[in-house]
Amino acid sequence: MTTKAIYKQSFALFFAGILSAVALGGSVSVQAQTESQPSSPPKFTKFQPGKLKIQGNGNPFKPSRMRQSEKPTGGRRGIPDGIDDRIPMLSRDYPWSAIGRVQGTTTDAKSYHCTGTLIADDIVLTNSHCVIDPETHQLSKKILFLPNVINGEVSNERDIATVDQVIYGTDFTGDSTINQTHDWAIMKIDKPLGRKYGYLGWKSLPASALIKNKEKLFFVGYSGDFPNPDKKGYEFLTAGKGWTAGFQAGCSIVKEEDDVLFHDCDTAGGSSGGPIIGLIDGQPYIVALNNAEIKNTRTHQDVINLAVKVSFLDELAGSK
């Protein structure tokens, strides 16, 4: 069987001079807000061990005035069918509030999106391939973070943040193993959104511990194939695919090979950078970072999904 790893950005065309971008599945008003902001390319820095540090200690934070809920549906539930176990993430409560849509523009004027998670006041975690094109090695011209997007809307348009700086793990000029294991990026945004929306912690757990806890993990991602507004129960999600995150409970890390984690969470383009979450002592921690899928190149069927270990965060935070 021939297989190939596929990185999961979700791309769309961007037309210069038009304020709204055309995204996979439709366009909404928040995109006009996105593209109308002044363009300011982020400062990119490749990670060098021991030379770069971020604020944060790996602990989650919930603002005192924000409610916390274990229900990502906010009281509403879709009716997924088949083997797709995702349901819409409709909650504005913590910890779901800390997850958002990464909206980027490439050097050749294409608009794309990924998923990102607040891990400190002004720091968002995502994948390297969400800030650098793995094939051309070009850096993104502009990157925005839209917190807690639901049906194409943020709770406050003034909270749409611009990425000022990026620390990335790989520029995809190395071998396939390096590209995979270092496919992470830390983005500094221009607003301390973590104070308002909260942020998730992280735990660098042994792969054996993750594998042992089968069907105990959660996944959230803005997949470009989800939700389908034509589906019964999803008719109210009119913004289109990729504009409401999909949530899945009960997925697993199934194995580890060469420092690469394999998982069975349901994903698609746009879910790159999505957090794989474990509840530890009742608190949400990122335990792995979704980044790619392996497909059978002959049948184009998904075989398994890949994730990046989060141990690099310990080093960046100075706790390792």
From TrEMBL:
Disordered, as annotated region: 33-84
Q: Which organism is it from?
A: Tolypothrix tenuis PCC 7101
Enzyme Commission identifier(s) = 3.4.21.19
Provide the protein name.
Glutamyl endopeptidase
Listed A to Z, the keywords are: Hydrolase, Signal
| Name of the top EC class for this enzyme | hydrolase
Span of the signal peptide: 1-32
Superkingdom as given in the UniProt entry = Bacteria
Q: Which GO terms describe its molecular function?
A: hydrolase activity
